[in-house]
Amino acid sequence: MAEIDELLRQGKRIQAIKLHRELTGSGLSEAKEAVERRMR
Q1: Is 32 within 8 Å of 26 (Cβ atoms)?
Q2: CA nearest 27: which of 14, 36, 15, 18?
Q3: Where does residue 38 rank: exposed (0-12), middle (13-18), buried (19+ CB within 10 A)?
Q4: Contact between residue 5 and residue 38 where contact means Cβ atoms under 8 Å apart
Q5: Nearest residue to 34 (alpha-carbon basis) of 10, 9, 5, 6
Q6: Are 35 and 9 in contact (CB under 8 A)?
Q7: Does an H or E element contain 2, and which?
Q8: Which terminus of the chain, N or C, has less C-beta within 10 A?
């Protein structure tokens, strides 16, 4: 998840969502929600 946090710090939200999906196997909406929670 550190990689996702780094992408978010760089403002690369879409790449962070894609990476979350690859790492967890989650769907698009689940990954989007999870990444948005990490942004707060």
Answers
A1: no
A2: 18
A3: middle
A4: yes
A5: 5
A6: no
A7: helix 2-9
A8: C
pLDDT per position as a tens digit, 12-35: 999 999 999 999 999 999 999 999
First to last CA, the chain: 15
Sequence-separated contacts (24+) of 13-18 with Cβ below 8 Å:
13/39
Please state, in angstroms and rounded to a whole number, the distance separating the CA atoms of residues 38 and 40.
6
- Please give the pLDDT value at position 9: 97
